[in-house]
Amino acid sequence: MKPPKETLQASVTRQREELAGMVAESLARAAQACSEVWGDRARLDAALAGALSAMPYCKFLYALDTNAVQISDNVSREGYIQKDFGRDRSQRPYVSEIVPAQDFVLSEAYISLRARRPSLTAIQIVRDAEHRVLGFVGADFDLRDLPLTRELYEEPRYWQQIKGDPSIRGTVFHQTRVESEMDRRVDDVLGLIEELVIDHGLFHVMLHFSSSRAVIWLYDDPYRYRLLDSAALTDPDTCLAYPRRLYPNDAAVPADRVRAVLDGFRQLRFMDEMLYLRSGTLNIFNGVVGLTFSCDGSHYIPYDEFLDKDHAFWVGGIAGS
Q1: In sequence order, what DSSP letters do the residues of 215-248 get, joined into one string?
Q2: How far is CA 266 from the centre of its chain?
């Protein structure tokens, strides 16, 4: 049995723990060196420069007093940046995260003021020989410079519901479905999509019923999408434009369940004149079905759960959501 996939937040937390482990010890040594020359700008800069050599991924090092006002230059590998001496950093996000009971804090990621890039700052409290707080040493990191392997986050398969535009939701009971070209030839459209999925390498499809178009991705060329209009979606010759491919063995959706999902889209499209499907998405590799309804609410649901729900469930669920 496979272990459960970690959530996005758990993945981020794990990466942050690895980052903290990379920098905490070096920053503690930097703070110790600075404590011995605290208050002397030139010697502080020299101590920070020496510490920077042991922190290969750090962009800037600097010292702050207890009010978060900078009492050193910004020390970088290119030299000292003197204009930051005296800078008040008290309103920066990493300062607000300092906890008195912790000597070391790794900030949440933020957008830097100058480079406008995702960044992190590690803060280490500086103490004197009597353990009194003198101030802080800060270390800035650009996220792109950090050497984490960053395993690719894998989306877990569970039902997610996202509410849409309130202005659309508020008027849903004053609208009715207008028949589209795709509605009129829905069986032809779904038959062609099924053929492309099963025999021509289509692995991800977004069917926009209201605007009679589809966006498709093929595993022969997964980085580019293709747009099919109503004419292409109702012309069997469209299949000739794509080479034949065996249905992938590692697809999460069995080949014999693809048509059932597509038929489920049709059922939801015509289930009610006010509450109806606007667009449906299927990805056979992650096994998730995406649904956007006339109320602008969206659902992302594992295909097998989707197939277990009947007409009455969706009408009741959407009306009450």
Answers
A1: EEEETTEEEEEEEE-HHHHT-GGGGGGS---PPP
A2: 30
Q: CA-to-CA distance for 193 and 198, rounded, in angstroms?
A: 9
Q: What is the mean pLDDT of each run of 10 residues along the chain (321 residues)?
A: 53 73 88 93 94 87 94 92 92 79 84 82 91 92 70 60 54 69 93 95 96 95 94 91 93 96 93 85 95 82 88 55 47
**6: Cβ contacts below 8 Å, ≥ 6 apart:** 14, 156
Q: Show the tokens assigned to 234.
A: 């109702």
Q: Name every residue whose Cβ is closer than 8 Å to that of residue 38 and which is 6 or more positions away in sequence.
A: 44, 63, 126, 128, 134, 135
DSSP string, 152-195: PP------EEE---HHHHTTGGG--PPPPHHHHTHHHHHHHHHH
Task: Kindly tell me the sign of the dihedral angle through the C-alpha atoms of 78, 46, 63, 124.
Answer: positive
List the domains of the chain with CATH numbers: 8-145 (3.30.450.20), 160-320 (no CATH)
Contact 251, 285 (CB under 8 A): yes
Q: What is the pTM of this model?
A: 0.62
